[in-house]
Design goal:
The complex is a heterodimer of chains A (about 425) and B (about 100). By secondary structure, chain A is an alpha+beta fold. Chain A has 15 helices and 13 strands. In chain A, a hairpin with a 4-residue loop joins β5 and β6. Chains A and B meet through β4, α4 and α5 of A and β4 of B.
Chain lengths: ~425, ~100
C-alpha cells in the first residue's frame, strides 16, 4: 500500500520567530547570528528581506554586513526556539503519532494510518490545515511537501516557500523532481555534487537515469541510496521519536577575543563553554556519554578528539575535566589556539539507571549536580553573570565570553547521511 | 567595523505589548479563568465573560500563547497567557 508522508519545514525558522516576537523588526533585513563581535559568529537564519541582499545562512557576519549594511543581527535565543519547536511538533502530533523531527524546524509526519482515509488528496488537505494552524497558533509560516516517501516529501517542502503546499505524486515526479539540480536531493553534499558535475550529472533526473551499478562504483553504498532516492524508491519509515531524541549532540565553540597560549587559558574557556553546554543539556533533560573537543590553531589547522565517559554527565565541571584531559593528551602547543569547542554527544535521558562505583564519591557528585541546578535557577532569575565561577574572573576577556554564539544544536542525520 | 553594525536593541521592544496584573480563578479541573485585570493606567477592569480560549499568536503585540476572548464593558478583547522561561504572564494588545 502506498504511504502518505508529509514534510513540514518552518520558513527561516529562527528569523521568523524573532520577527513574530519583535514587530519592529518586520520589514527590515534581519538575521539571527553570533555575537556583535565581528571576529566570530555566522548567520544562522535570515528573513526574505535579507536574502534579497544576498545574505546567506552560514556566511560570516562581516561578509553578510558587507552585502547588506542595514542588516540587523539579533543574537540567537535557543530557549525560545526549542519551545517553539515543541509546540510545532505538538500541532503535527494531532494528525499522526508518527512524527519524526529533523532538527528543530523540520519534521516528517506519516498520515497513512489516518482514520480520515488516505491518499494525496487527504495529504494535501492536512498539509493545508497544518499551514493554517501554524500560522494562526504560532504566528510563523511553514512549507509542506506531500509525497509517498520521505525524500520527495522533504524535497516538496523546499520547492515553494513560504507558506505553500507542494504535492509530488507517482504520476508527476518525473516532471516536478527530475529537472531539479542534483544538489537538491537529500544526501548530495558539496563533495558529491562536485563529483557529479565532473561526470556530467546535473539534475536529479540524471541521477535517476544513471546505471545504479555505476553510482555504486562512484560512491559506494551511498551511490545506491542516491539512485533509489532519485527514483522515489525510498521506503524508510517515519519513526516515532520522543522529544529528547531531537537533539543528537549539544555543543559550544568559540573564537576567543585573544589567542589561547596555554592550558590555563583553555581551562577558563572550556569551563565557560562547558557551563553553557551542561545548562542546555539539563534543560533538555539529557546527559552525555561522550565528550568531544575541537581545537583550531591560529594558522587555522583544526582537529577534534573524543572520549567516552565512565558515567554519563550533565555537570559542567565533569565536562570541563574531560575536555582538559583530552587537550593534555592531544595537544603539544606548537602554536596558540584561535578557537576551541566542547560537545556532549551520545546523549541519553536523565534518570536512566547506572552502575555505581566504589571509587567515586557519589555524595560529592550529587552535590555538584544540585549546585549546578541552583546556579541555573539564579541565572534564570537574575541573568547569566549574576553568578560566576571565580575561575572565570581570572581573565576578564576570556571569562566574560557569552558562549551561546555558535550554532550549537545538531540534529539526527538521515539514513546515515548528514 | 563595530561602528557600522546596526544595534538590534531598539528593535526589540514592542510598543503594542502590555503586560497586565490579573486576578484569576483556578478551577478544580485545572482550568484558568481571568476575573479582572489592571491596565497600565492603573484602572482595574472586570472580565464580564470568557467567550473562547485557544492557542494563538499575536502579530500586533508580538508573541503567542493561550488566547482568551473576553468581554469587558460590552466590548470583546483578547488576553494572552504567555509562557516563557518558566514565567507565566498575561499580556494584552494596545488598541
Amino acid at each position: 500500500m502506498s504511504r502518505t508522508v508529509l514534510h513540514a519545514d518552518l520558513n527561516n525558522c529562527y528569523a521568523s520567530i524573532e520577527m513574530l516576537h519583535h514587530p519592529k523588526l518586520r520589514g527590515h533585513p534581519v538575521a539571527v547570528g553570533g555575537s556583535a563581535e565581528e571576529r566570530r559568529g555566522i548567520i544562522l537564519a535570515r528573513n526574505y528581506e535579507a536574502r534579497a541582499y544576498g545574505v546567506k545562512v552560514g556566511q560570516a557576519l562581516w561578509e553578510a554586513r558587507a552585502k547588506c549594511p542595514e542588516l540587523i543581527v539579533v543574537p540567537p535565543d535557543y530557549d525560545k526556539y526549542l519551545r517553539f519547536s515543541r509546540k510545532f511538533r505538538g500541532i503535527l502530533a494531532d494528525y499522526s503519532p508518527q512524527v519524526e523531527p529533523f532538527g528543530l524546524d523540520e519534521s516528517w509526519v506519516d498520515i497513512s494510518g489516518s482514520a480520515r482515509g488516505s491518499g494525496e488528496k487527504l495529504g494535501e488537505k492536512i498539509a493545508d490545515e497544518i499551514r493554517e494552524r501554524v500560522k494562526f497558533e504560532l504566528g510563523v509560516t511553514v512549507s509542506v511537501g506531500v509525497s509517498w516517501n520521505k525524500v520527495f516529501a522533504k524535497l516538496g517542502s523546499d520547492i515553494r516557500k513560504p507558506d505553500a503546499t507542494t504535492v509530488i505524486t507517482e504520476d508527476n515526479f518525473r516532471d516536478v523532481v527530475w529537472p531539479l539540480p542534483a544538489a537538491d536531493l537529500l544526501g548530495v553534499g558539496r563533495a558529491t555534487q562536485g563529483k557529479f558535475a565532473r561526470y556530467g550529472v546535473r539534475t536529479i533526473g540524471d541521477i535517476a537515469n544513471c546505471d545504479a551499478e555505476l553510482l555504486k562504483l562512484w560512491f559506494g553504498k551511498c551511490g545506491a541510496s542516491l539512485w533509489a532516492y532519485a527514483n522515489g524508491r525510498d521506503s524508510s519509515p517515519v519513526t516515532e521519536t520522543g522529544d529528547e531524541a531531537v537533539v543528537k549532540s549539544v555543543g559550544n565553540s568559540t573564537t576567543t577575543p585573544r589567542d589561547l597560549e596555554n592550558e590555563h587559558d583553555c581551562h577558563i574557556v572550556f569551563q565557560n563553554l562547558s557551563e553553557s553546554v551542561a545548562e542546555r543539556m539539563r534543560e533538555l533533560g539529557l546527559q552525555a556519554k561522550t565528550v568531544e573537543i575541537s581545537l583550531r590553531r591560529n594558522d587555522l589547522a583544526s582537529f577534534t578528539r573524543q572520549t567516552a565517559l565512565r558515567d554519563p554527565t550533565h555537570i559542567s565541571t565533569e565536562l570541563c575535566a574531560a575536555a582538559m584531559k583530552l587537550l593534555r593528551e592531544n595537544y603539544r602547543w606548537e602554536r596558540p589556539l584561535r578557537s576551541i569547542g566542547v560537545r556532549g554527544t551520545n546523549l541519553i535521558p536523565i534518570g536512566q539507571p547506572r552502575q555505581l562505583t566504589l571509587f567515586e564519591d557519589e555524595v560529592k557528585r550529587g552535590k555538584s549536580e544540585r549546585l549546578e541546578y541552583a546556579i541555573d535557577d539564579i541565572r534564570r532569575r537574575f541573568g547569566h553573570h549574576a553568578i560566576d565561577r571565580a575561575l572565570l574572573r581570572l581573565d576578564d576577556k576570556l571569562g566574560r565570553l557569552n558562549p551561546k554564539s555558535d550554532h550549537a544544536i545538531h540534529s539526527i542525520g538521515f539514513g546515515g547521511i548528514q | 567595523m563595530n561602528g557600522s553594525a546596526i544595534d538590534y536593541r531598539p528593535y526589540m521592544d514592542s510598543e503594542d505589548k502590555v503586560y497586565v496584573d490579573v486576578t484569576e480563578r483556578r478551577t478544580k479541573d485545572g482550568g484558568l479563568i481571568p476575573l479582572s485585570f489592571v491596565w497600565e493606567d492603573g484602572v482595574s477592569y472586570a472580565v464580564d465573560d470568557v467567550l473562547d480560549a485557544r492557542p494563538a499568536a499575536s502579530l500586533k503585540a508580538g508573541g503567542m500563547g493561550l488566547r482568551y476572548t473576553v468581554r469587558v464593558k460590552r466590548r470583546e478583547t483578547f488576553m494572552y497567557l504567555e509562557e516563557e522561561r518558566g514565567l507565566c504572564r498575561w499580556f494584552m494588545e494596545r488598541k
